[in-house]
Amino acid sequence: MAVLANFSIFILILILPCVFASNYYTSSYELQILFEKEITFTNKLKDLMKEYPALKKDLPRARTILADVLVTRESISDDIINNPLNQFLLMWKFFHDWAYIANDLIKVGMKSPYDENFDLVALSGEIKSAQVSEKDLRNAELAILRVQEFYHLDAIDVIRGKISNYTAIRALVEKQANDIVLKAVEQGDTCGAYNWSKAMIQLKMNVIEDGRLLTRNPPSQKKCAATICSTGAGESYCILKDDSTARYQKACNTKSYNYPKGRKKRAACSLNAIHPSQILQPIKTEQISVNPPIYQFHEVYTSQECDHIWATGAAIQKRSTVASDPREKITVSERRVGTNSWLGDDSSVVDMFSRRVGYATGMQMSPEDVEKWQAASYGIGGHYNLHHDYLPEYADQLAHLGQRYATFMVYLSDLPLGGATAFPHLDLSFFPSKGSALFWFDISLAGEPLTLTLHGGCPVLLGAKHIGNKWIRYNPQFLTYPCGRSPNSIAKLPKSLCRY
Question: Rounded to whole angstroms, how far apart are CA atoms 322 and 340?
């Protein structure tokens, strides 16, 4: 019976990776949990080795993994968790080292003298339930390529474990760097593969044959300058830069928000108190763009409120999808790398978030008049390439509430580097500031699309970007924002809302 029980557990362990499939590549929430599991599994393995000294002989790879501890309870911090290189190193360790340990634990646990002790088999099951898939690891390599190219990082620095002034737990080893070269080759990114191969040679590393061939016959600098491979746009991974893409990349690389030359900065105003809460916590606003109208609200929500609403949607996040044509199948795409969830106004915090949008904009915010809150997150290299928020004319969702009239986007986290919201046609970029929000009109008062609202979520370079989106529909707003005098009339916030 004991043998049968052990065999049953053995079969269960083998299928666990399929049952507990995770999405570490796009989910910052899952990655944070994985860091905690690294600590838990390391401590459990240490305890087992102390309790059963003979395991040192039966589990030779355990000594290797215990000598290569990434994080401990004492050392873990946001700086470590939010570094994309540390995230990559962690996923690599779980795919390679911890996977081997899990298999070794099963083999040792099934034989004497451990046949009646299920600690080894149970630990193996726990490790396998957290296993990183090959797809996740390959996509993480893609994310490293994305941020390295998009933000013009030196490949030598990245291999050494440096991103700007932030340093990873350790440098990349030769095998890891070669796998990234191979990923670039597979994607048709000859410029990226060449840059990484050249950097490896300078660091005295051996390079795979494909990389060596590129260093002997490098792509032209002109071709590399005209090509971009980090936006996930187009049928092929690498595309030729057009004006919008070039301006988008430039805006994302802007260190801070700047007004274009010749544009006068508008003074911030405090919104008139529509609700008593605004007397104690006034909302400040700036009109950043007149055509199309874009506003920035400051201190709309407290840090605690942002944490609360993010926690509400974090555990139910799923991989974000896109569809260029709603009549086509909605798919996962490298154009949008992140996760999202939808939150109804059935909790007091979510309801409060919606009401405060109404206080700031004067919009009608009844649940039946607007879309649910979308809580979105962008982790390792996460981004959302250029897009408009308004819906195509043939979208089924237009029948009842009409077109998306305006977008209210609140930043639920700060970001040390990257992750801006950029409007390439306006040469504007806004970097996340926790509790602040952007608000813009997507269509004119006559319902015509405002094409200059083309925008994108720049790749996250360091940290985790959490945002909340509320899309306000056109039909329920006809009393607050009536039709304009001409087809080109553009809405703006009522003057009555603002006092200087």
Answer: 12
Q: Which two tokens stand for residue 385?
A: 């390439």
**323 vs 78: CA distance, rounded Å:** 34
Question: Is the pLDDT confidence value at 43 over 60?
Answer: yes
Taking a C-beta distance cutoff of 8 angstroms, is the pair 442, 388 a contact? yes
Q: Which two tokens stand for residue 348?
A: 């007091």
* Widest pairwise Cα distance in the chain: 87
Distance, in Å, from the CA atom of 9 to the CA atom of 166, rounded to the nearest integer, reads: 44
Q: Distance between CA atoms of 412 and 73, rounded to whole angstroms?
A: 26
Neighbours of 413 (CB within 10 A): 22
Per-residue model confidence (pLDDT) at position 329: 63
**pLDDT tens digits, 57-110:** 888 888 889 988 999 999 999 889 999 999 999 999 999 999 999 999 888 877
Cβ–Cβ < 8 Å for 87, 380? yes
Strand partners, 405: none
What 3-state class would DSSP assign to 453?
helix
Q: What is the rounded average pLDDT of the residues 301-317?
A: 91
3-state secondary structure (DSSP) of residue 457: strand
Q: Is-contact 241 229, C-beta < 8 A?
A: no
8 A C-beta contact, residue 343 and residue 467: no
Q: Measured between alpha carbons, how far is 257 from 263 in angstroms, rounded to an integer?
A: 13
Contacts 24+ apart (CB under 8 A), 58-64: 58/104, 58/108, 59/101, 59/104, 59/105, 59/108, 61/97, 61/100, 61/101, 61/104, 62/101, 62/104, 64/97
Q: 84, 419 in Cβ contact below 8 A?
A: no
Question: Residue 296 corresponds to which tokens in the numbers above?
Answer: 């920035």
Query: Long-range pairs for 347-351 at CB < 8 Å and ≥24 separation?
Result: 347/312, 349/305, 349/308, 349/309, 349/312, 350/309, 350/312
CA distance 111 to 75: 36
- Beta carbons of 344 and 350 less than 8 angstroms apart: yes
Could you give the C-alpha distances from 238 to 154, 179, 270, in angstroms and in order? Answer: 20, 19, 46
CA distances (Å), 218 to each of 13, 118, 179, 189, 237, in order?
47, 56, 19, 12, 19
- The pLDDT tens digits for 374-412 are 999 998 899 999 999 998 776 566 667 888 999 999 999
More confident residue, 482 or 34: 34
Helix (H) or strand (E) holding 50: helix 28-51
